[in-house]
Amino acid sequence: MIRRKGTIWNKSLSGRRRKENRHNVNLHLVCWNVKTFFLGVRIWWISRLLFHMKNMEKKNYIPNIPEIDKQRIVIVGSGFAGLKLVRGLLGKNFQIVLLDKNNFHQFQPLLYQVATAGLEPSAISFPLRKILQKEKNIHFRIADVKEVNAEDKEIETDVGYLKYDYLVLAMGASTNFFGQENIERSALSMKSAADAILIRNTILENFELALLQESADKAAQYLNIILVGGGPTGVELAGALAEMKKYIFPKDYPELDLSKMRIVLYQSSGSILPGMTSTASGRATKYLKQLGVEVILNTRVLDYDGGCMKLSDGSTISSKTVIWAAGVEANHIGGLSVETQGPKGRILVDRQNRIKGYDDIFAIGDLCLMETPKYSKGHPQVAQVAIQQAKNLSGNLKRIQQGDTPGLRIYEYKDKGSLATIGRNLAVADLPFVKLRGFLAWMLWSFVHLFMIVGVKNRILIFMNWSWNYFTYDQSLRLLIRHKPSIVKRSKQELFCETEPLEVHPEVNMEHK
Ligand SMILES: Cc1cc2nc3c(=O)[nH]c(=O)nc-3n(C[C@H](O)[C@H](O)[C@H](O)COP(=O)(O)OP(=O)(O)OC[C@H]3O[C@@H](n4cnc5c(N)ncnc54)[C@H](O)[C@@H]3O)c2cc1C
Q1: Which of 84, 141, 266, 363 is the most exposed place for a label (fewest CB within 10 A)?
Q2: How far is CA 487 from the centre of its chain?
Q3: Cα 246 to ligand 1 centroid, rounded to whole Å
Q4: d(CA 124, CA 317)
Q5: Considering the domain 181-325 in this protein, what is its CATH number?
């Protein structure tokens, strides 16, 4: 007999009960497990549903872009590359959506003339809607593209999401300060029309401030202009500023002692215009020195606080105007794998401009880096490469559409030569078969730039401006235009009011009667 918790059990009976009990416990456990499992599944499913609903709520797609029976190519960026691609695909059997932060195309090679009061920004910009006016199946939106979601074939922008069949990134590059925050905060750069106008305003403002200084030495820091970087941008700006010092400033500011004004160009390597031949570089240095620019080689800028610049040779120079033109880095877009990231943020692409690891996403122009036997570190970031890659890609996209994938062409850079202008009648040109210097190179430079600019009106405007400046030795655009800060601040807040329909004001209608 076994006594357990006040119960007398028969041994054989208790054995059977124990077995039954164990069986029951096991059954309970299984049931409990199954129940818990299904409860878990239900919770997971509901949370997924809620998450999805929340996402659906959040995901607002860019409206008014119809879903049609054509494949959609989304092109981000309307610079040299993006615009050429759009033009190559017009009238073909695609729906094209072009996105850009601005509503205009900008001709960057002439920005330095805007910065030095030679041209108005409108002369080197072209409204995108005008280019696309008569075209069907093309949509343009002002949008800042943030991220790619390759899995769902969509992109995220500041104005909503957008689906694509093919995505082409042509977002170009921005100024690279190489992580030097002080310099980034205090120096000017030149990548957009807004930057160029800021340079123009800063120079003119500093000249006005120079007039208010009591001593010539104090005034000098407002007059000095320092350019960092001896590439085409630094060289062209330095030359144009030297001409202003020679022809314009003495007439505009006769009270200033301009002999104290210094225009200094710093270059970290041993020669300027590193992409050109050594003779072109030598000649450009000579021209700059002729114009009174101090060209200082093998010297790096270590720091700049808005007033004083420290240099690697231990020297310092005081200036309120520093223009940083020492390098670029590719514009960033999120969502792409780390394997696609090349040096200076450039996106690695194959010979057909397809981003490595993605079948339907391409990158062209300054943004991408394509390694070829001839250009093992990628192509130079110049307009010709951007234009040619866009042309090759538009052909390839048409071939893909026709199912002709074996016919896809690889890109090979056809270098048509390099040009840089230093000033009136002074330029250097390295062409494949001939090297030109001086007046001939300058004529060629002018012709090429006039030819490349978009829009007949812009060409005429620029030609007239250049002719006027050439014959009068005068730039007429030295206006110091300032915005009203309070308006900018207020426009950032969302200020709204109801617009009442006219008919609710009978007195208005009465008056008209
Ligand atoms: C001052 C200066 C002078 C130059 N001079 C010469 C020269 O003489 N010869 C020469 O061959 N090259 C010159 N270049 C270089 C030439 O301009 C570039 O190589 C060329 O512009 C590259 O074309 P791209 O289409 O790749 O980029 P870009 O022309 O820079 O166009 C990029 C476009 O993408 C848009 N964008 C960027 N980010 C976003 C985003 N997140 N969302 C939406 N849109 C975005 C921009 O608004 C822009 O419209 C110069 C450049 C500068 C800055």
Answers
A1: 141
A2: 26
A3: 31
A4: 34
A5: 3.50.50.100
Which among 76, 50, 48, 52 is positioned nearest to 62, based on CA atoms?
Answer: 76
For residue 388, the CA-to-ligand 1 centroid distance in Å is 14
Q: What separation in Å is there between the alpha carbon of 240 and the centre of ligand 1?
A: 21
Q: Would 71-101+143-175+329-407 and 181-325 be classified into the same CATH topology?
A: yes
Nearest CA to ligand 1 atom 7: 109
CA 87 to CA 96: how far, in whole Å?
A: 11
Domain boundaries, the chain: 10-58, 71-101+143-175+329-407, 181-325
In the reported structure, the alpha carbon of residue 432 is separated from the centroid of ligand 1 by a whole-number distance in angstroms of: 24
Pocket-testing residue among 80, 98, 105, 108, ligand 1, by greatest number of atoms within 8 A of Cβ: 108
**Where do runs of H (alpha helix) occur along 105-226?**
111-115, 128-132, 181-186, 193-210, 216-223
Q: Print pLDDT tens along the chain (513 aa).
A: 444 444 444 555 556 666 666 667 677 777 777 888 888 888 888 877 776 666 555 689 999 999 999 999 999 999 999 999 999 999 889 999 999 999 999 999 999 999 999 888 888 999 999 888 888 899 999 999 999 999 999 999 999 999 999 999 999 999 999 999 999 999 999 999 999 999 999 999 999 999 999 998 899 999 999 999 999 999 999 999 999 999 999 999 999 999 999 999 999 999 999 989 999 999 999 999 999 999 999 999 999 999 999 999 999 999 999 999 999 999 999 999 999 999 999 999 999 999 999 999 999 999 999 999 999 999 999 999 999 999 999 999 999 999 999 999 999 999 999 999 999 999 999 999 899 999 999 999 999 998 888 777 888 888 888 888 877 877 666 777 776 655 445 544 555 666 666 665 555 444 443
At the second CATH level, the architecture of 71-101+143-175+329-407 is 3-Layer(bba) Sandwich (3.50)
- Determine contact, residues 362/354, Cβ cutoff 8 Å: yes
Q: Which atom of ligand 1 is nearest to the CA of 81?
A: 25
Q: Whose CA is nearest to atom 19 of ligand 1?
A: 382
Mark 228-240 as b/e (b = at least 16 C-beta within 10 Å).
bbbbbbbbbbbbb
